[in-house]
Amino acid sequence: MKQLQMVDTKTQYLKIKAEVDAAVIAVMESSQFIGGKVVSQFAENLAAYHHSKHVVTCANGTDALQIALMALDLQPGDEVITPSFTYIATVEVAALLRLTPVFVDVDEKTFCIDPVAVEKAITPKTKAIIPVHLYGQAANMEAIMTIAQKHNLFVIEDNAQAIGNDYIFSNGAKRKTGTIGHIGCTSFYPSKNLGAFGDGGAITTNDDALAEKMTMIAAHGQSKRYYHDIVGCNSRLDAMQAAVLNIKLKHLDEYISARRKAADTYDVGFSNHPKIRVPFRDSNNRHVFHQYTILLENVNRNALHNFLAEKGIPSMIYYPVPAHRQKMFNTFGESSFNLPITDWLTERVISLPIHTELDNEQQQFVIKHVLEFVNN
Questions:
Q1: End-to-end CA distance of the chain
Q2: What is the DSSP-derived secondary structure letter of residue 58?
Q3: Do 289 and 165 meet the contact criterion of CB atoms below 8 Å apart?
Q4: Cα–Cα distance measured from residue 248 to residue 315, given in angstroms and rounded to the nearest whole number
Q5: What would the pLDDT profile of 240-280 be if each residue is shown by its tens digit?
Q6: Which of 12, 10, 2 shows the shortest CA–CA distance to 259?
Q7: Using the 8-state DSSP alphabet, how is residue 278 labeled?
Q8: What is the fold of 252-374?
């Protein structure tokens, strides 16, 4: 049996090596390493994939979120509603811009932001909502957009873990996650479903004015070279990463299909076990399984994590400390946030290996040892 990995980026690369190598060599031969045709081609290809009017590329997913918030002209002290059960980047950028993150609880089944909690948290200072499509599952965007329209709020989708997810509205209309809110942000970190060979990020929007402004912000706020109209930053997707992503984008749906197949195998292996809750499959979206995260009942999660490691099985705990309990947010006062589901989940979730190269023998090995532990 091949050695188990959380993500097998090397084997994935070997399958498309000829295409990728040729694309990277072409960039080196052109000597156009920053910007240029290959970056603009990727932006166009990604926009076409999403059926989105605009894609603004940038250096990473965190920058994507920061640029999005900067484009909305929010003022220090303005409130941004966000889940606490997320990677820290989602809320870190709000604090960096001196905005006030307002943490709300998540849905117990989907692990995504709870629309009911969102509406309860709205105040006159609220200006935006950042739903996170966690682990590849989409948040309830139909409800969130209804709330946002009612209260005249911006919606920025954190789509770093769910690129390719099809969200289905109650009327049957279908949209890609990242294109439903005013702005969508994604990451091309190597382990993502669409991963570069380094860092990278992108922003999607159908708003012409926002697209123009975010393009300026990402390039030092300049409208043309050396003419800086607004305060911006320096955030660029380099050409080599764009070359790799152009190749991998053509395979994205294939990669998603492989992840769903692997998730199906895990689902069967853990079916109806009283101590294991497999990922919820919400009917309003098609989970893309960036992570396969199970919820444990009456099981020592940390002990399972250690047991699997002893058997050569990697696993991860995303996220052991929610954002509202991180030291960086001590000034907000932990006691001011009552997030029982978030706290409950952080003690019980564990993610198992899932990637495009995972084979049945490896999965059966994982299933066998997870069951061995939880049944004792």
A1: 25
A2: E
A3: no
A4: 25
A5: 999 999 999 999 999 999 999 999 999 999 999 999 999 99
A6: 12
A7: P
A8: Aspartate Aminotransferase, domain 1 (3.90.1150)
Q: Which residues, 6+ apart, have CB-to-CB distance to 155 below 8 Å?
A: 128, 129, 130, 131, 144, 145, 148, 180, 181, 182, 183
**Long-range Cβ contacts of 251-255 (<8 Å, 24+ apart):** 251/16, 252/49, 252/163, 252/164, 252/193, 252/194, 253/164, 254/356, 255/12, 255/193, 255/194, 255/356
Which structure tokens are listed for 230? 């607004």
Q: Give me the CATH code for the 9-104+111-249 domain, please.
A: 3.40.640.10
Asked if residues 343 and 322 have their Cβ atoms less than 8 Å apart, the reply is yes
Contact criterion met (CB below 8 Å) for 66 and 187: no
Q: Tokens representing 341?
A: 């589901």
Contact 355, 8 (CB under 8 A): yes
Secondary structure of residue 219 in the 3-state scheme: strand
Q: Where are the domains of the chain?
A: 9-104+111-249, 252-374
* pTM to 2 decimal places: 0.96
pLDDT at 330: 83
Convert 126-167 into a string of H (helix), E (strand) and C (coil): EEEECCECHHHCCCCHHHHHHHHHHHCCEEEEECCCCCCCEE
According to DSSP, the β-strands at 183-187 and 154-158 are parallel
Q: Give the pLDDT of residue 103.
A: 96
